[in-house]
Design brief:
two-stranded antiparallel sheet; mainly alpha
Length: 308
Amino acid sequence: MHNNVSAAKGQVSIGRLIFNAPFACRDGRFSLLDNVDGFGQAQSMEQINSIPEPPAEVTRPAMSLSARLFNVFTEPGEVFEYVKNSKPSMDNWLVPVLLAALTGALAIFVLFSQPAILQKIHEQQMKAFDDQVKAGKMTQAQADQAEAMVEKFAGPTMMKISGSISAVIFSFVQVFWWALVLWLLGLIFLKVKFPYIKALEVAGLATMISILGAVITVLLAVIMGKQTSISLAFFITDFDPKNLVHLLLKAVDLFSLWLAVVMAVGLARLAGARFSKALLCTFIYWTAFQLFLITIGFVAVHLSPGAK
C-alpha cells in the first residue's frame, strides 16, 4: 500500500514537470486538473467552460445612402446618430443638393408651362401698369412700352430659364446656410463645437423634406391652376401679397416647419443636447428668419410699381 501511494506521488511529480498542471485525487484515483482558482481550490474543465465569455463588441451595421435619404422622413434621429459617428461623407450633402436642384428646375418648368398660372401672372403685371397710369405716374404710352418690354424679357421662356438657374443656386445656398445656422446654434447657445462638415451633412439629408414639399406643391398648383403652398394661406381664395395677414399665414408652411423640426433633431444629436433645448433654439431662429422674409416682401411689394 505504501509503495502504491509513493508511486502515485511520483506520477504526480512527473505530471507537474511534464505538463506543468496540477492533479487531484478523487475516489482513490488521480486526475489532471485544468485550472486552480485564486484561493487554491481546483477547478475542472467543465467548471471553466460554464463561465460565460464576455459579449463581443457589437458592430453597428452600415447604413446605405438610400436608407439615409429615405429614413430621414421617419427616423431622423437614427440617421443623424449614424452620421455623427461615421466618417465624413460628401454624398450626405451633395446628393440631396443635386436632387433639390433638379426638382426645383423641373418645378419651375412645369409651373411656367401652365396657361392658367401664366395668365394670372400676366394679369398681375398689367394691373400694376394700369394702377401706375391711374395714379399719374406714367402715361398710357409708357405703360404699353413697359408691357412690351415685360413680354420680351420676362416671358414664359425667360421665366423658365431664370427660374431654373435660381432654383439650382438656391439649393446650394440653402444647405450651406442651414449648416452654418446649426453650427452657430451649437457653438453659441448649446456651448458645443462640432465639425461644420457634420452640420453640412445633417442639413443636406434634411433637405429631402424640402424636396418632398416642392413635389407636392407643384402637383397642387397644376391641379388648382394657381401658385399655392401647404400653409395656412392655402384656403385663401385671392391671395394678396400686399396683405400682411396673408403673408403671415403663408409663412406658416407645413414643410418649412417640418424641416425646422428635423434640423433640431440633427442639432440635438450633433451637440449631444436635449431635443427640447435644440428645438427651442431652432424655432427661435426659424421665427426670426420668417419675420425677416415677410418684412422684406411686404416692403418690396409696396415699393413696386402700382403700389398704393
